[in-house]
TrEMBL record:
Belongs to the serine/threonine dehydratase family. One of its GO terms (biological process) is L-serine metabolic process. It comes from Chloropicon roscoffensis. This is Serine racemase. Keywords: Lyase, Magnesium, Pyridoxal phosphate. Gene3D superfamilies: 3.40.50.1100. Residues 30-327 form the Tryptophan synthase beta chain-like PALP domain. Its cofactor is Ca(2+); Mn(2+); Mg(2+); pyridoxal 5'-phosphate. The lineage of its organism: Eukaryota, Viridiplantae, Chlorophyta, Chloropicophyceae, Chloropicales. One of its GO terms (molecular function) is threonine racemase activity.
C-alpha cells in the first residue's frame, strides 16, 4: 500500500487500484446507472445516538449496487472480448446487473444461479434477458458451471467481486457518498460478502479522507460462519470457511485474494450481527423510512444499531456515520413475510 499525493494506490499480486481508476469507472457507470440519494431518519439515528446517512442503493437500477461493477466490467471490455457475450455466477443481484449491463451493450449474458436463489431475483434475471443455468449450492458448483459455459461459448467472465473492474465500479458508491455528505463522515458501515463493494468504498473514501473508518457488517449465520470477521481476527484469509446459513442470501460469498487484501489493509473492523437483528432492522427501515430493503441490505443497519458498534465506535467519537443500504430485492412471495423469514432462520 503506498500513497501518491492525494491518491491512494493499492498494489496486490500485480493488480493496481488507484483513485484515478475509480474516476475512470465513474465515467462509464454514470452513463447508465443512477446517482442514488442519501437519506436521513431521525428515529433510527436517535436509536443509535448518532446521525446516520443512508446511501440508498435500493433505488439503483436492478435494485442493488451491483449494476455499478457490472457496467464498468462490461463496458471496459474490448470488442474482441465482448463478441461471445459474458458469463457469471451469482445468487441474484450480480446476475441481474450482468444481464442488464450486457443487454445495454448488446451482447448475450449467460448466468449461473444456485438452485435456491430467491424467485424474485430469478424472475428479474430473465426479465433483463439473462440466459440462466441452475447449479448446486457450493462455490465449486458455480465455478464448474461457469467454466463449462466458457469452454462452449467462449464468453468472457464477469467477476462478481474479485476483479479490478468490479471493485472500481462499486467504488463509485464511495465517491458519491463522500460528495453528498458535505460536512464529512466519521465512518461508513458496509455489508460484506465477497468484498467487492467494501473494497471499492474503502479505496475511494480513504483516498479522500484517510482518517475515516470503514466498518464491515457481516451476518454470523446460524452456523457461525462470519468469515470476514474470522479472517480479520486471524490476519489471514480463512480459505476453508464455510458459507453462512443466513437470511442475507446476497452475503454468502467468501472473499477473494484481491478483495481480502483491501479488506486486510483498509477495513478497520468487522461488526457481526445475528439473524434476529437483521429481521428487526428490515422492519425498522420499512416502518420508519417507508423503504423496502432485502436482508443483505439491512445488515448494515443492524450493525449500526448493535451494542458492538456502540462499544467499538462510540457515538461521541463517531457522530456522523454512513450506512449503505445495498439492495432492495426482497422476496414477497408469502403474505406474512416477516414471520416467514423468522421461521426460516430459526429452522436452520
Amino acid at each position: 500500500m503506498t500513497g501518491q499525493g492525494e491518491k491512494l494506490l493499492f498494489r496486490e499480486e500485480g493488480v493496481e487500484l488507484s483513485l484515478d481508476d475509480v474516476y475512470d469507472a465513474r465515467e462509464i457507470v454514470s452513463k447508465h446507472a443512477k446517482v442514488t440519494p442519501v437519506f436521513t431518519n431521525s428515529t433510527i439515528s436517535g436509536l443509535c445516538g448518532r446521525e446516520l446517512f443512508f446511501k440508498m442503493e435500493v433505488f439503483q437500477k436492478t435494485g442493488s449496487f451491483k449494476i455499478r461493477g457490472a457496467l464498468n466490467a462490461i463496458f471496459s471490455m474490448t470488442d474482441e472480448q465482448a463478441k461471445n457475450g459474458v458469463v457469471t455466477h451469482s445468487s441474484g443481484n450480480h446476475a441481474q446487473a450482468t444481464a442488464l449491463a450486457a443487454k445495454l451493450r448488446g451482447i448475450p449474458a449467460y448466468i449461473v444461479v444456485p438452485e435456491n436463489a430467491p424467485k424474485v431475483k430469478v424472475a428479474a434475471i430473465k426479465g433483463y434477458g439473462g440466459n440462466i443455468t441452475f447449479c448446486g449450492l457450493t462455490m465449486q458448483d458455480r465455478e464448474d458451471a461457469c467454466n463449462k459455459i466458457q469452454r462452449e461459448k467462449g464468453s468472457h467472465f464477469v467477476a462478481p467481486f474479485n476483479a479490478k473492474e468490479t471493485i472500481c465500479g462499486q467504488a463509485t458508491i464511495g465517491l458519491e457518498l463522500m460528495e453528498q455528505t458535505e460536512l464529512g463522515l466519521d465512518a461508513i458501515v458496509v455489508p460484506i460478502s465477497g468484498g467487492g463493494m467494501i473494497s471499492g468504498i474503502a479505496l475511494a473514501a480513504k483516498s479522500l479522507n484517510p482518517k475515516i473508518k470503514i466498518i464491515a457488517a457481516e451476518p454470523r449465520g446460524v452456523n457461525d460462519a462470519a468469515d470476514a470477521h474470522k479472517s480479520k481476527a486471524a490476519g489471514a484469509l480463512q480459505v476453508d470457511a464455510v458459507k453462512p446459513k443466513t437470511l442475507a442470501d446476497g452475503l454468502q460469498a467468501k472473499m477473494g485474494n484481491l478483495t481480502w487484501a483491501v479488506v486486510r489493509d483498509l477495513v478497520d473492523d468487522v461488526v457481526v450481527v445475528e439473524e434476529a437483528e437483521i429481521v428487526s432492522a428490515m422492519q425498522l427501515v420499512y416502518e420508519r423510512m417507508k423503504v423496502v430493503v432485502e436482508p443483505s441490505g439491512a445488515v448494515g443497519v443492524a450493525a449500526a444499531l448493535s451494542e458492538e458498534m456502540a462499544a467499538k465506535f462510540p457515538p461521541q467519537s463517531f457522530p456522523r456515520v454512513g450506512v449503505v443500504l445495498c439492495g432492495g430485492n426482497a422476496d414477497f412471495s408469502v403474505v406474512d413475510f416477516w414471520a416467514n423469514w423468522t421461521k426460516r432462520w430459526q429452522s436452520f
